[in-house]
Specification:
Shape: elongated
Largest sheet: none
Number of strands: 0
Oligomer: single chain
Number of helices: 2
Length: 53
């Protein structure tokens, strides 16, 4: 999960600017984020399965 705070506000502004300039780029960003989230979930699932043995 990505939370906004004073430290990352410039980064968030830049992301929104990129999306406004190139709306189709948003879908690439979402795909990358979804891939990372799925990889992390599968990794944790595998760890949990291996600790049962």
């Amino acid at each position: 999960m990505f939370y906004m705070n004073d430290d990352n506000l410039p980064e968030i502004k830049e992301i929104f600017k990129q999306i406004m300039d190139q709306p189709d780029k948003m879908f690439d960003m979402l795909r990358m984020n979804l891939r990372k989230t799925c990889e992390a979930a599968v990794t944790e699932l595998i760890k949990a399965e291996l600790t049962e043995l």
